[in-house]
Amino acid sequence: MSQTPIIDSLNADFAGLTTSEFRGQTRIVVARDQLHDVLRTLRDEHGFDMLIDITCVDYLNYRDATERFGLVYLLARSDDMRRLTIRVMLSEPDLSVPTVTDLWSGADWTEREVWDMFGITFDGHPDLRRILMPEEFTAHPLRKDYPLQGRGERHNFPVLTREDG
Amino acid sequence: MALEQSGSNPSIEVPENIVISKLDELASWGRKNSLWPMPFATACCGIELMATGASRHDLARFGAEVFRFSPRQCDLMIVAGRVVMKMLPVLQRIWQQMHEPKWCISMGACASTGGVFDTYCVVQGIDRFIPVDMYVPGCPPRPEQLIQAIIDLQDQIQTEGTVTGREFNTRERQEPKRALVELPILGQPYQQS
């Protein structure tokens, strides 16, 4: 399903968008400072009223990768269920993007999950806490440089014996 | 009851409807036939646990069908499924809330060893952190295996049980069953952060 009119309209408003299409799925790579405006334009003027998910990809040691993280916004339009993928490339040390909880309230928990798993901060988020890992956890375990078996977090618990009741 | 002297050994003449036993065995007999399980079912082993309690396999034949969801009413914890590190404090809290005498069955590969989930968040065997009396292998175990584990636990209660629970305070039961050894991470030296 081609999204050509939407892309043409976006290209008229914003400079430097990179679009690609693969098997009918359209992907737009935007810069970090354009992100919030692009998403608001898509929601208000093009009818993308549903935020499906926010997720992230760690491109550490990936071939031909220039930036480390790819932050992915999956949008959908509820009247004809067209889908659109917005992607922002981020690199350390500046891993912060503006929050979209003011556009879609459902972004609250998905942004918390991305923060928990990848350590990307969302400026302006009302309650940016860990959502999956325990509060005292210090790492971001879905990063590629985090060891698969953890760093000993699984063993830092008291051992109960029969005497402890 | 007449007391009769025969030689140097005093003996007691017992009427026919009286059985002489030890109080320990009497208490163990009562305990083993009314185990009340606490289902700590976190994964697919919980489905087999439910099947064990349902009509086809009928755990009621062994007196252990009364699943209670309050730890204060239970004396047998059945940990069925993987336990993640965020869940482990809950597991330990529930274990501490159960009244003595209490037993624990580690059901399935995940609860016993972590199974295939050797990742940053899954506890590699609950016996590292709480005492376990019986292990059930399988992924998930058949209900027959769980019933066999309950029968074996009943035998253990009958042979070892005491009224005061002295068997729980033996030294070998208190020693941790496995050392807390962290596996080295492939390709890099282990470091505790």
Question: How does this structure look, described?
Answer:
The complex is a heterodimer of chains A (165) and B (193). In chain A, 21% of the residues lie in helices and 25% in strands. Chain A has a five-stranded mixed sheet. Chain A is α/β, with parallel strands linked by helices and 165 residues long. Chain A has helices at 4-13, 35-46, 107-118, and strands at residues 18-22, 25-30, 50-58, 69-76, 83-90, 96-98, 121-123. Chain B has a domain at 37-163: 3-Layer(aba) Sandwich (Rossmann fold). Chain B is 30% helix and 13% strand. The radius of gyration of chain B is 21 Å and the shape is elongated. The A-B interface holds A 132-134, 138-139, 141, 146-155, 157-165 and B 85-86, 88-89, 92, 95-96, 100, 118-124, 128-131, 168-169, 173-174, 176, 180, 182-183, 185, 188, 190-193.
Give the key terms.
heterodimer; A: 165 residues; alpha/beta; Beta Polymerase, domain 2; five-stranded mixed beta sheet; two-stranded parallel sheet; 3 helices; 25% strand; elongated; B: 193 residues; Rossmann fold; four-stranded parallel beta sheet; two-stranded antiparallel sheet; 6 helices; 6 strands
Give a short overview:
Chain A is an alpha/beta fold and 165 residues long. Chain A is built from three helices and seven strands.
Task: Return residue spans of chain B where pLDDT drops below 50 for at least 5 consecutive residues.
Answer: none
Main sheet: strand order of chain B: 3-4-5-6
CATH topology of the domain at 37-163 in chain B: Rossmann fold
Low-confidence stretches of chain A: none
Largest contact between protein chains? A-B, 25 and 33 residues
- Radius of gyration of chain B (CA) equals 21 Å
Named CATH architecture of chain A: 2-Layer Sandwich
Distance between the termini of chain A: 64 Å
User: How does CATH name the architecture of the domain at 37-163 in chain B?
Assistant: 3-Layer(aba) Sandwich
> What is the 3D shape of chain B?
elongated
Structural domain count of chain A: 1
**For the record, what is the CATH homologous superfamily label of chain A?**
NADH:ubiquinone oxidoreductase Nqo5 subunit
Q: How many individual β-strands of chain B?
A: 6
Morphology call of chain A: elongated
CATH topology heading of chain A? Beta Polymerase, domain 2
**Beta-strand percentage of chain B?**
5-15%
Q: Mean of residue pLDDT of chain A? A: 88
- Class by SSE composition of chain A: alpha/beta
Strand residue content of chain A = 25-35%
- Describe the oligomeric state of these chains in a short phrase: heterodimer
Q: Please list the strands of the largest sheet of chain A in the order they lie side by side.
A: 1-2-5-4-3
